[in-house]
TrEMBL record:
<dbReference type="InterPro" id="IPR014710">
    <property type="entry name" value="RmlC-like_jellyroll"/>
</dbReference>
<dbReference type="InterPro" id="IPR018490">
    <property type="entry name" value="cNMP-bd_dom_sf"/>
</dbReference>
<protein>
    <submittedName>
        <fullName>CRP-like cAMP-binding protein</fullName>
    </submittedName>
</protein>
<dbReference type="InterPro" id="IPR000595">
    <property type="entry name" value="cNMP-bd_dom"/>
</dbReference>
<feature type="domain" description="Cyclic nucleotide-binding">
    <location>
        <begin position="9"/>
        <end position="78"/>
    </location>
</feature>
<dbReference type="Pfam" id="PF00027">
    <property type="entry name" value="cNMP_binding"/>
</dbReference>
């Protein structure tokens, strides 16, 4: 897998686990400009994009929100639902019309507790996504706000 891409569900979960997880999915649509969630609000669901794009953003005091990453087809929107306190760490907005699969986080967490192999696979998948998003956030914030050359070493 290329390091610059987010681990999508089809590549990250074995077929049997993917099939079980998809049993909890229902299709939703969001018009362009819809805020899916805000930083700090309750993370009680997550999505896998079918079509369209979603931008992740981070509140920056005294400035406009910084766009961290743009997500597309087969990418996971939201990871905060898996980890306590289940509050969003970023915000998300549909930048085009979006069709997605939506999942109830409580139901998926319960299924993961009941099936440790599935739970481990989902945790690994979401952990890979989380690691990627943290790297993207750091890089994007340094690009936006660090003084030119601040990161160079002589």
């Amino acid at each position: 897998m290329i390091a610059t891409t987010t681990p999508s569900m089809p590549r990250a979960l074995p077929a049997e686990h993917r099939q079980r997880l998809m049993g909890f999915a229902h299709e939703v649509s969001f018009p362009q400009g819809t805020r899916l969630f805000e930083e700090g609000s309750r993370a009680d669901r997550f999505w896998i994009i079918r079509t369209g794009t979603v931008q992740l953003d981070m509140h920056v005091p005294g400035r406009r929100a910084a766009v961290i990453e743009t997500l597309r087809h087969n990418e996971l929107v939201g990871w905060s639902w898996l980890f306590s306190p289940h509050a969003w760490h970023l915000g998300a907005e549909a930048t085009t019309p979006v069709r997605a699969y939506e999942f109830d986080a409580t139901a998926v967490r319960l299924m993961c507790r009941e099936d440790p192999a599935l739970g481990n696979a989902v945790a690994q998948w979401v952990g890979d996504v989380l690691a990627h998003r943290l790297r993207s956030s750091r890089t994007r914030l340094l690009d936006l706000y660090a003084p030119y050359g601040a990161g160079s070493r002589d």
